[in-house]
Amino acid sequence: MDSTRSFGEYGRRRPGGGAKLRSRRGRIAQNWWSQRFVDALERGGDRGRLQRGRTYARAGQVLDLRPRPGAVGARVQGSRPRPYLVEVTVRRWTPAEVDAVVATVVENPLLLAPLFSGDVPPGLVDLLAGIGVDLLPGEAEVTYDCSCPDGSEPCKHAAAVVYALAEQLDATPATTLALRGVELPDLLRRITDAASGPSAPVEDLAVHVGSFHRLAGDLPELGVRRRVPARTVADDLEEAVLGPGAAGTADALRVWYVALDAQDQAGGGQSRA
């Protein structure tokens, strides 16, 4: 095939082929984590190149978007027949930072449920920021590499990749962890191991089981304090940990816990509220 004809036929119409963004105008990032990721791009980028990058991303010109630990790669169809190769690199967490993330989740077990569902709760980001560990990369932690002749950072092709990635972050928030070099299954495994601690030797377990059956007398009082009237376990749910969707949870559940407490008291049982 004649290369000049190929350029004339395909270059001017800029074929897409990639996934087009759901956002057709305005901001691309919809959630707080993807917005903060895009902010790092837009603070240091040229406005014109950013605008063309958004156009490329919305037209489906970002091909084969491949996030992986510490980076995201893609091909971007520009005005030439052959797509450009783009790689956006994010600074990986150090081993000490990963240890701090594990310790933070172990100390705040309410973070586990969102993580196991593939979400990244805002509370985790805030807690990590309090100890100097940033989940979302800053401008200085992101580098761009593109095979196009434009030497700016980021060029319009790299910008298109970041915008396409931002929309993927909306759908799969745990990708932010992978960009920091930590795969979510590996992180959860480390958290589970740290929370459970080392296993006792089998012979020690046998001694403890035998001793249990030789216990005499009544079990001691556990010293569980009764709840303050009209206050329930729902009041301990922290919106900062569970996210904005937890607003009103305590009010909705309190009436049921109070009713259960009253039923237990009438039956002479221990309060569950």
TrEMBL record:
In this chain, the stretch annotated as Disordered covers: 1-23
User: What are the UniProt keywords, alphabetically?
Assistant: Metal-binding, Zinc, Zinc-finger
Q: Which Pfam families match?
A: SWIM (PF04434)
Query: Per its UniProt record, what InterPro entries does this chain match?
Result: Znf_SWIM
Q: Which residues form the SWIM-type domain?
A: 131-166
Where does the sequence pass through the membrane?
A: none
Protein name, per record: SWIM zinc finger family protein
Q: Which species is this record about? A: Kineococcus halophytocola
